[in-house]
Amino acid sequence: MIHFLRYRVLCAVISVAFLGAGVAAYIHNGGFNYHIDFVGGTELQVSFENSIPVSELREALSGEEWDSPVIQSVGTTGKDFFIRVKQDGKTLEERFTKAVSKKIKNNHASITNIAWVGAEVGNDIKFVAIVAIFLALIGMLCYIAIRSEYRFAVGAVVALAHDILIVLAVLLILGEQISLNVLAALLTTLGYSINDTIVIFSRIREGFATIKNHTEEEIVDISINQTLRRTLLTSFTTFLAVLALYLIGGEALKGFSLSMLVGIVAGTYSSIYIASPVMLAIGGKSR
Q: Backbone dihedral region of 284: left (phi > 0), alpha (psi from -120 to 50 degrees) or beta?
């Protein structure tokens, strides 16, 4: 039998250190790198006839009128790019074509898609996103508290908050954008993580009622070991499916799949090393 709770202090230190790295990245980056879904602006999807280095395209758009554009290469051909700027998109296509044709010779560029979001709409979406996550946590806290015990509810919600913060920390460290796809991944992670946690907690509650002559910590270890095969099989198969999305899903699914990959790992880890230790630390009558 694996004595998981023997390492709970070490795992707590690792989690705090990781979250600390996320805070450091937040300060260093000056906040999150929001997609235009949240901050407003225009995103161009551009395709060139021939391959071109990102540095050359960045040089072509280096004028003050472009307001520090964010340029991302799409795929491996070096021909397709996402360009995000904070200007109005009404005359952007004409200005982009003019700037590129002037500095990049013999390589025709075509704009395949333009997406524009106003700043006010972006702020509204950001507020709704925060409210959605907060309400999800509160709803789960109340439901689990009613269905079982308060300490199980607190342990589960602390684990969920941990998972969200870990995903955000990874996005900060890697400099990835916070988009609506990432928001969807965060909410999906909540559902995935709480499912795993409830399975473990159900076995723990059953153990508290049936296993005698063992401490609560020993019963928790026994229960985690009993559900370990199910936890690993579910997490591994889900991880493989999302990994396929990350590798071949293209740029549009990159933020979602990366967030989900991190969320799956964090959710599996937190169900064992965050939710259960917090539940035990609160204490209460279960036997």
A: left
- Cα distances from 236 to residues 190, 212, 265, 268, in angstroms, run 17, 33, 9, 10
Burial of 168 (0-12, 13-18, 19+ CB in 10 A): buried
Residue (of 3, 11, 7) closest to 159 by Cα position: 11
For β-strands 109-117 and 33-34, DSSP reports them as unpaired
- The separation between CA 252 and the C-alpha centre of its own chain, rounded to angstroms, equals 15
Secondary structure (H, E, C), 163-221: HHHHHHHHHHHHCCEECHHHHHHHHHHHHHHHHHHHHHHHHHHHHHHHCCCCCHHHHHH
Place of tokens 């539940």: 279
Name the DSSP letter for residue 141: H
| Tokens describing residue 131 | 């409210």
Parts of the chain with a pLDDT under 50: 287
What are 32's two structure tokens?
Answer: 């999150």
Contact 60, 103 (CB under 8 A): yes
Angle at 157 between CA 152 and CA 159, to 5 degrees: 95
Query: Tokens representing 193?
Result: 């993580």
What are the pLDDT digits (tens) for 187-235?
888 888 888 888 899 999 898 888 888 888 899 999 999 999 988 898 9
The two tokens of residue 22 are 């996320």
In angstroms, the CA 3 to CA 7 distance is 8
